[in-house]
Amino acid sequence: MASNFCDQIIVMYAGKIMEKASTMEFLSNCLHPYSQGLIRSTLDLDTMDVKLNPIPGSPPNPIYPPSGCRFH
Fold this sequence. Notes:
Layout: E1 8-13, E2 16-22, H1 23-29, H2 33-40
Antiparallel strand pairs: 1-2
């Protein structure tokens, strides 16, 4: 859906930018594990497959975020 409206995609997690790419590059080859989880969790509206693929884990504490990547 984003490809219909956007030239670039920026993915944020816990207030930080995880990935920035052109829309086509992002949809064909996103690199960050959170971005990959977002792509896997989208529904295909052309099929009747409504099985959700959640992103595992829990969000970090925003007051005391972990050091390094906030997704891990």
